[in-house]
Amino acid sequence: MGLPPASSAGTVTVDIFSSAMILLVLCMSHALAAGAGAAYVPTDSILLNSGSTEDAADADGRTWLGDQTKNKNSFLSSGESRISTAAQQDPSLPSPVPYMTARIFTEAATFEFPVSAKTQHFLRLHFYPATYDGLDPACSFFDVTVAGGGITLLRNFSAYANAEALTQAYLIREFYLPPAAATGGTLRLTFTPSAARNGSFAFVNGIEVLSAPDVYGGAASLVGFSGEDVAVGGSSLQTMFRLNVGGQFLPPGNDTGLGRTWYDDSPYIFGAAVGITYPAADNVTIRFPSTAAKMAAPVDVYGSARSMGPDPQVNLNTNLTWVFQVDAGFTYLVRLHFCELQMSKLNQRVFDVYVNNQTATAGADVIGWAAAPAVPTFQDYTVYVAGGPGAAELWVVLHPSAASKPEYLDAVLNGLEVLKMNDSAGNLAGLNLRPSEYSDAEKQQEKEEEQFASSGTSSGMLKGAAGGAAALGLVCAICFAAYSRKRRRAVMGGVGSSGGWLPLYGSSTTTSRSTISGKSTASSHLSSLAVSLSRHFSLAEIRQATNNFNEKLVIGVGGFGKVYRGVVDGGTKVAIKRSNPSSEQGVNEFQTEIEMLSKLRHRHLVSLIGYCEEDEEMILVYDYMARGTLREHLYQSSSGGGGEAAPLPWRQRLEICIGAARGLHYLHTGAKYPIIHRDVKTTNILLDERWVAKVSDFGLSKTGPSSLDQTHVSTVVKGSFGYLDPEYFRRQQLTDKSDVYSFGVVLFEVLCARPALNPSLSREQVSLADWALLCKRKGKLDDIIDPALRGKISAECLAKFAATAEKCLSDHGLDRPAMGDVLWNLEFALQLQEAADAGAAPPLPPPGPAAGEHAYAHRQADSIAGSEMSEDSTDGVNPVFSQLINPKGR
Q1: 672 contacts 864 by C-beta, under 8 angstroms
Q2: Angle 181-187-188 (CA atoms, 0-180°, nearest 5)?
Q3: pLDDT over 90 (residue 124)
Q4: How far apart are CA 307 and CA 414, in angstroms?
Q5: Helix (H, G, I), strand (E, B) or coil at 834
Q6: What are phi and psi of 575, to 5 degrees?
Q7: Distance, first Cα to last Cα, the chain
Q8: E strand or H helix at 453, and its extent?
Q9: Is 478 helix (H, G, I), strand (E, B) or coil?
Q10: What is the chain's percent helix, strand, coil content, to nearest 5?
Q11: How far apart are CA 890 and CA 888, in angstroms?
Q12: Measured distance CA(563)–CA(444) in Å, rounded
């Protein structure tokens, strides 16, 4: 009773950590597009860029009207206000328009939009809670109401608090308003600062008003009351979640003309039963039954699906479950989108649908609903979520219907929407979100950013796109990025109230939490493989190894906690990283580090010896790296004075870079699936007593694409200022080329012996990547290399090394080399230097790696568990990339 062969539908197994999230995605095949039809053209289309003095286009090419055009307060009919520009631009904004300008209200003010009186409208409000005219965004609380029908959209709303809890720099609130909201052909929208808070103010950055067809009209089944329906038409709705189940992120331009955004569903899946996702086969054409049906969801939503998988026994014992945080005390419209892409007959795949532990539909058969395969359909349910003010959960569960005796025991879903319905008083407003506990990786970055802001140390998140340091501005902009980071915390759950529909993206975790004496503590859910490959130290052993955590043995401090030098087993030197016991940091990093490093063994990866998880302590034990970080030997010794060690010679720097490249190349290609480090920087390249480079700190690492059909994984952006791939930051689509970009910064850092970011320099020099690229293009690279290296690098070697670094920093990931190619070029650069040192003619470049040799083919050769190597083993890379000319060990 398994499913049809996977090849019939291009089935792809999906890892729970995989989530496609931001910006443009490739369209489905032309066969799918044949069923798409023409897009809806709204009769009313107003995009207002509040506070702007001129019209401007956003990143999607849509034109926004400046509401100060021709010195007129366009659409603002009453109330005093002023316009302002945000003090800083957060680099995660999708576009400056409409977020960088705002209209500020210190008293009630009303917009009047002339619209069609007999149609529905989408209303979208855009908020960027930055500093305007010195006003603290944390002091902004306000109401937003619509006069028609007495609708309250937001009450005592704080964009700042919600953005902080949702880990977003900006917010979008989307509402679907009935015709009654526009009385007399005018939609009146009023912003009122909260009277209960002194000094409060209201603001808005952008307003969208678009007419829409009757997408959510009619009636919906009332869950728990068989045969009873709830009228949805005429209600005001707020979009809470809109998901392309089993598919990729779809931006507004990929919708049907309604400007809706569809997110990936995987962050909301509960448990390990994530099922499989698959696209429609090439010979399948999506056929909409009517013009109205085309407006329900774009063809791309119906062209992919998530099912439970081919194993009937597993399916019978599990559910396909999505969990959402919502506001209690409201009724919700839950719309499930279906399109059968695999089955062709009735009773082949039949399943039950549950909403909040109540049967919504028993014996659901998509073919029966749609009357044919590849025909879209949807089912609407309403459910009341009880409880007092605050957060609640809404569950959607699918389970095979064994009672129907179908041919295949499976369930399937293509799309899912959750919309809040107004209550009897016309209210849609929920409580503001509360910032919840966030991951240690986020806290580590926040702490490093604060240190960077005060000391100039380069740590944290993003510098911006190549050539974009000027856009970031001077130190204030860099410090603001650290400030903004505090608002972008991963909150996969535990917030006070949902209130909004921007997804709570973040790395899923199997770590559960309990509370002991009021303090949260994590219990280990490490895999059996991780446990078997990692030694468990008792806390007593750790205390003995560190002389009870003697401060004199501290060799480093990070966001996770302090790192101690220690001795175990009667003489083995180790580095012991202890999570700060007074905080709740480190759960995600602790788990990821053990899971990753317990499976990886390579000469150029730092080795994890074991861990300790006892009495609320989280401790990791590593091989001791006697010479510390690469960064220490670039900055603290480059001057050569004051009793410091001599600067690292160029050849040694090259060999360190080659070692680090080998470690990263192994991560990308030596395992079954690629592993993306996500935090490549000179502080995460450690050196042992023999100066062998080892890549360390896998707390942010992520498993990469699991098949040839996937080009990336999508995830919240994590990394460090100055090193982070700008394309990854813009799109939130992570690939191994993101590590390549970071490594390119490392290469220039090694060459120039200066931090990746230095706010004390002039504006164009703040970012090393931007400054080095500019100097190289102007032919002035010699001016910025480490003075200790001048005259000691052969021209041929420098040209090859700099060209390699430059290629790594290409704006687009597709233009960057694979790490195998980077390694190949660095080894050739070393050969060029050796030839120059020996007075020989430069060698000719050997043939490069065979096309495709270092991509997915390598991954198929070795599983993670089977790729262990001892310290004395070979480097674990294909020989074509190593010892290119001289067959001697390095």
Answers
A1: yes
A2: 105
A3: yes
A4: 9
A5: helix
A6: -110, 130
A7: 56
A8: helix 440-455
A9: helix
A10: 25, 25, 50
A11: 6
A12: 14
Q: In this structure, what token pair is assigned to residue 767?
A: 């970012």
> Distance of alpha carbon 12 from its chain centroid, rounded?
21
> Side chain identity at 420, as an amino acid letter?
K
Q: Rounded distance, CA 811 to CA 740, Å?
A: 12
Strand pairing of 377-385 and 330-338?
antiparallel
Residues 696-748 pLDDT 10s? 887 777 776 654 445 556 555 667 878 988 888 777 778 889 999 999 999 99
Asked if 717 and 732 touch (Cβ cutoff 8 Å), the reply is yes
pLDDT digits 0-9 by tens, 416-460: 999 999 998 999 999 988 754 333 434 444 444 444 434 433 333
Largest CA distance in the chain: 90
DSSP characters for 766-825?
A: SBHHHHHHHHHHTT-GGGTS-GGGTTSS-HHHHHHHHHHHHHHT-SSGGGSPPHHHHHHH
CA dist 681 and 694 (Å) reads 12
Give just the sign of the alpha carbon dihedral 567, 572, 573, 579.
negative
Distances (CA, A) of 780 to 242, 467, 776: 51, 17, 6
Residue type (1 letter), 718: K
Three-state SS across 747-767?
HHHHHHCCCCECCCCCHHHCE
Place of tokens 């997915």: 856
- Output the six-digit token pair for 438: 């966030």
- Kind and range of the H or E element at 845? none
What does the alpha-carbon distance between residue 856 and residue 669 come to, in Å, rounded to a whole number?
7
User: Cβ(881)–Cβ(849) under 8 Å?
Assistant: yes
Beta strands, E only, 464-516: 512-516
Contact (Cβ atoms closer than 8 angstroms) between residue 177 and residue 146: yes
- Whether the CB-CB separation of 738 and 676 falls below 8 Å is answered with yes
Q: Are 325 and 498 in contact (CB under 8 A)?
A: yes
The region, left, alpha or beta by phi > 0 then psi within -120 to 50, assigned to residue 303 is alpha
Q: Which segments of 649-735 does DSSP mark as H helices, in order?
A: 650-669, 726-731
Q: Say what the pLDDT of residue 705 is.
A: 60
* Cβ-Cβ contacts under 8 Å for 759 (sequence gap 6 or more): 456, 474, 475, 478, 766
Tell me what pLDDT residue 498 has: 35
Distances from the Cα of 683 to the Cα of 75, 458, 679, angstroms:
53, 10, 10
Give CA separation, 531 vs 16, 163, 594, 611, in Å.
21, 38, 8, 9
Whether 599 contacts 607, CB under 8 Å: no
Decide if 679 is catalytic.
yes
Catalytic residue among 67, 679, 725, 739: 679
Angle 186-188-193 (CA atoms, 0-180°, nearest 5)? 170
Domains of the chain: 6-39+216-421 (no CATH), 45-212 (2.60.120), 513-623 (3.30.200.20), 637-848 (1.10.510.10)
Q: Which of 54, 53, 64, 70 is nearest to 97 (CA)?
A: 64
Under 8 Å CB-to-CB from 540, ≥6 apart: which residues? none
269 DSSP assignment:
B
pTM exceeding 0.90: no
For residue 511, the 8-state DSSP code is: -
**Separation CA 212–CA 537 (nearest Å):** 62
Evaluate the omega torsion of the peptide bond into residue 406 and state whether it is cis, within 30 degrees of 0.
no
286 Cβ contact list (under 8 Å, min separation 6)? 32, 34, 35, 36, 280, 299, 302, 303, 339, 374, 375, 376
- Write the DSSP string, 124-148: EEEE----BTTB-GGG--EEEEETT
Q: Residue 329 corresponds to which tokens in the numbers above?
A: 């005390």
Q: Could you write out the three-class secondary structure of 693-722?
A: EEECCCCCCEECCCCCCCCCEECCCCCCCC
Which range, 461-470, 610-619, 710-719, 726-735, is most confident? 610-619
How far apart CA 116 and CA 180 sit, in angstroms, is: 11
How many secondary structure helices (H) and strands (E) does the chain include? Answer: 20, 44
